[in-house]
Amino acid sequence: MPKLDESLLRPLPPFSKLDDSAIRAILDQSTSRRFEKGSTVFEEATAAESFFLLLDGTIRVVRITTEGEQVTALHIPAGQLFGIARALGRDTYPATAVAASEGVVLSWPTRLWDGFVAQYEGFATETYKTIGDRVGEMNTRIVEMSTQHVEQRIARALLRLVKQSGKKVTEGIEIGFPITRQDVSEMTGTTLHTVSRLLSAWEKEGLIISKRKKITVCDPHRMVTLGGT
Amino acid sequence: MPKLDESLLRPLPPFSKLDDSAIRAILDQSTSRRFEKGSTVFEEATAAESFFLLLDGTIRVVRITTEGEQVTALHIPAGQLFGIARALGRDTYPATAVAASEGVVLSWPTRLWDGFVAQYEGFATETYKTIGDRVGEMNTRIVEMSTQHVEQRIARALLRLVKQSGKKVTEGIEIGFPITRQDVSEMTGTTLHTVSRLLSAWEKEGLIISKRKKITVCDPHRMVTLGGT
DNA sequence: CGCAAACTTTGCGTTTGCGCAAACTTCTGG
DNA sequence: CCAGAAGTTTGCGCAAACGCAAAGTTTGCG
User: Fold this and answer.
1) Whole-angstrom Cα distance, residue B229 to residue B223?
2) Does any strand C atom come closer than 7 Å to the Cβ of B213?
3) Nearest beta carbon to residue A139 from set B69, B94, B228
4) For residue B33, what pLDDT band results from cuts at 50, 70 and 90?
5) Cβ contacts (< 8 Å) between B146 and chain A: which residues?
6) CA-to-CA distance for A130 and B89, rounded, in angstroms?
7) Which residue of B has its CA nearest to A133?
C-alpha cells in the first residue's frame, strides 16, 4: 500500500467536512490501485462491488451499444468519486469506466457505503451534489445533441475538456490527457472523419494546435463563440 | 383542501415503508393544487421553494435553449416526486416543469425536505432510486441521440410514452395524454415536419393510428423492431 | 354559426455530415 | 532500424433530415 495521508482526501468534496481521524479511518479501509491508459476499471452491468475515488488521471465513462459503438457519457476528473451505483440504489454499474490516461484510484467495498453515509455527516450531501452536477451535465448534453450542429458540439466538448483538465502552455491551453479524434467523436455523436476535418480546418485558422492524441486550444474565446450563443 | 388520505401515498415508492401516522403527518404539511394542461409548475433557474408529488396527470420536464427552442428532457408519470432539486444539493430548479395534461400535484416547502430525509427511514433511499432511474433514462437518451437515426429515436420515444402512460384500447395502446408532433419532435431532437411525415407513413402501414394530439400504437412488436436491435 | 387559432400534412430544394476508400504519418516493439 | 500497429488526413458521392412555404384540417370561442 502506498503511503497516503489525510491531506490527500481533505480537500475533496465528500471529505471536506470530516476530521482527521474520520478520514484516517476511511483511508485505512481503502485499496489503492494504479491503472494503465485504456484499462477498464469496471464494466457496465456487472455487480457493483466497489466504489472509487480518482486520485490522479481521468476516467472516461462509456456505454456500448448493441452494434458495438461506444458513446462517452461523461469524463471524471481527478478528485471525484465514481462508480457510486449504491448511492442511487443500484447494484450493478450503469456504464463502463475506462482510464483515459494512466491514473490512480482508491476503492472501497460497496458494503461500506451505507456505513459511511450514516456515520459521517455531510458525506452523503456532498456526494449528491456531485451527482447533481453530473445530472446537469448530462442534461446539457441532451440539449446540445438535440439542437446543435456538429461544429458547435465539438467546440463545446473541447471547452469542457479544457475546463476540466486543461493545462496552460505557451500556445494556449492543452487538454490534460491523450485524446484521439475517435474519442472526440464518441463524445459528440459523430465520426472520427468529421472531427478530423473540423480540427484540421480549425488548425489552419489558428484556433487550435493538434498533434497526435493532443489538442491545444489557442483561442478559447473564439471557441466559445463557435460553441453557440 | 381536497380530502386526501394515507391510502393515496401508501403505494408510492418514497412512502411505501412508512406507517400511517408518518404518512398522515407528511400529508398534513402538503398543499394540493390542480394544474391545467400547459401550465407551468415551476421554472428553470428559479429558487426551488417547493418539491412536488404528481398525483395525477403527466409532467413534461423541458429546457429552453438560448435560441428559444424547447427540449424535453423527461416525462414524469403520476406517482413520482419531482422538483427535488434539494436532494441533489441544488437551490434552483435545473429545468422547467410543464403539465402535459391537466393534473394534480401535492407540494411541500423545500425546507421540509431535510427533515423528511432525517426522520423517515427509507424516504431518501427510495427517492434516490427514482433519481437513479432517471439518470439511467437520460443516459439512454444520450446514447440514442448519438447513434440512432430519427426513425429509431421516434419509435423508441413512442414506446417509452406507451410504457409510461399507455392505456389499452381496442385498436392497440394509446398514449395517456394529449401529445402533438411538436412535442414528439422536442423529445427526439428533430422537427415537427419530420415527425409528421414519419407518423403518416406509419399510419399507412397500420403501425399506428393517430388523431389530433393522440397516438395509438397498434403493433408494439413491430415498433420495437423499428427502434433498433 | 363562423372565425381565428392551433395543429397537421405535403412538396421541394438544400445542406450537413455520413459512409466508404485510400493514402499518409507517427509511434512501438522486437 | 524496420515492420506493423495505431492514429490521422483527405477525397468523393450520397442520403437523411432540415428549412421554408403553403395549404388543409380540426377545435374552441365569441
Assistant:
1) 11
2) yes
3) B94
4) very high
5) 69, 71, 145, 186, 188-189
6) 9
7) B88
| Cβ neighbours of B138 in A, within 8 Å | 135, 138-139, 142
Contact between B147 and A189 using a beta-carbon 8 Å cutoff: yes
Question: Which chain B residues touch A125 with a CB distance below 8 Å?
Answer: 89
pLDDT band, residue B3 (cuts 50/70/90): low
For the stretch B94-153, pLDDT in tens is 999 999 999 999 999 999 999 999 999 889 999 999 999 999 999 999 999 999 999 999
Which nucleotide's C1' is closest to B197 (Cα)? C9
Q: Is the pLDDT of residue B1 over 70?
A: no
Q: Which amino acid is at B12?
A: L
Which residues sit opposite A92 in a β-bridge? Answer: A47
Model confidence at A183: pLDDT above 60? yes
CA of B190 to nearest chain A CA: how many angstroms apart? 7
Query: Three-state SS across chain A?
Result: CCCCCHHHHCCCHHHCCCCHHHHHHHHHCCEEEEECCCCEEECCCCECCEEEEEEECEEEEEEECCCCCEEEEEEEECCCEECCHHHHCCCECCCEEEECCCEEEEEEEHHHHHHHHHHCCCHHHHHHHHHHHHHHHHHHHHHHHHHCCHHHHHHHHHHHHHHHHEEEECCEEEECCCCCHHHHHHHHCCCHHHHHHHHHHHHHCCCEEEECCEEEECCHHHHHHHCCC
What residues form DSSP beta bridges with A47?
A92
Chain B 140-179 residues in 7 Å CB range of strand D: 149-151
The answer on pLDDT for A2 being more than 70 is: no
Confidence (pLDDT) at A1:
52
Mean pLDDT of A178-195: 97
- Across the range A191-213, mean pLDDT stands at 97
Whether A109 contacts A42, CB under 8 Å: no
Q: Is the CB of A192 under 7 A from strand D?
A: yes
- Higher-confidence residue of A3 and A141: namely A141
b (16+ CB within 10 A) / e for A151-162? bbbbbbbbbbbb
pTM for this predicted structure: 0.94
